[in-house]
Amino acid sequence: MASAMVFSISRVILVCFAFCLPLPLQGTPESPFHNPNAKTFSSSEDDLFYPLSPVVQMGKHNLMKFGIGTPPLETFAIPDTASNLVWLQCGCTNCYTQTSPTFDPKKSSTYESIKCSSDNCKNTAYSTNCNGLDPDCSYNLSFQDIGTSSRGHIAMETLTFQDGLNRKYPMFNMTFGCGQDNKDTFGFKVPGIMGLSNHSSSLIGQSSFIDFSYIFFSNASIGRSEVRIGFPPITGHLTTALAPNSKGLYIFKDVDGIYVEGEKVDIPESVFGYVEGESGGLIIDTGATFT
Q1: What's the rounded Cα separation, in Å, for the pair 177 and 85?
Q2: Of the candidates 81, 79, 103, 108, the residue with the CA atom closest to the CA atom of residue 90
Q3: How much is the pLDDT for 25?
Q4: Architecture of domain 4-229
Q5: pLDDT < 50 positions in the chain
Q6: Which residues, other chains included, contact 49 with Cβ-Cβ below 8 Å and sequence gap of 6+?
Q7: 37-63 pLDDT per residue, tens
Q8: How far apart are CA 81 and CA 85, in angstroms?
Q9: I need a labelling partner for 42 at 20 to 30 A (CA). Which of 96, 127, 190, 234 fits?
Q10: Domain segments of the chain: what residues?
């Protein structure tokens, strides 16, 4: 007996939860990703054409698999709904050891640096003030684990995903962080982070799609874990609204508390309540190991 957790997130209002056993074939009415208004994958000309990323497990983390650059280099990143930026180790001056080849922007014909004066620089999460010494836009971010960090330049590049029929789905001129000075205090050895928040500089914020969903299996023999972009929210399941948040986080709007075997854990309800700009609230964080 096995289960899978499915999340469908709309950049507007919706988060959905479901447990599936087993995962139905994609495109069938029983599938949580079924769109009744779209043709199934068995059609020839009008197949669904949404970007998706296979997810593989490495240690305690799920990693999205995709390509970067032209020609595309296969790479991996932690899907992180609490991060506002896509970044990878890139053109390194001080980088940690990673398990796959490091992206070299000099080998890509589509890499383009972003200047400090551009709107892309001003609107990107974590971008730093230009000091006049470096004309290129830079970023500097650190994570809550105290120690893990990434510094580098903001650039544009082509990110290549798959679609439902394993065709290539390139996303052009995507803003990302080329991390040149990075620290990995936990030794994850992962090339980078795939920011999936609602911020305008995340992968979702930059795309033309309003929805994305993901399904993570604990065992690859049960089914393939994936992140799918552009699939409409799952309907017919329990749902909860999301609180609006200027920082791009997905925050549960109405959380009563945590229950264990029917008994409510003694945690003040104020811990889960959220007011814009203030403390509190419960976020969705796919980059965190524990709930």
Answers
A1: 7
A2: 103
A3: 33
A4: Beta Barrel (2.40)
A5: 1-3, 5, 10-47
A6: 163, 164, 167, 169
A7: 333 333 333 346 789 999 998 877 889
A8: 10
A9: 234
A10: 4-229
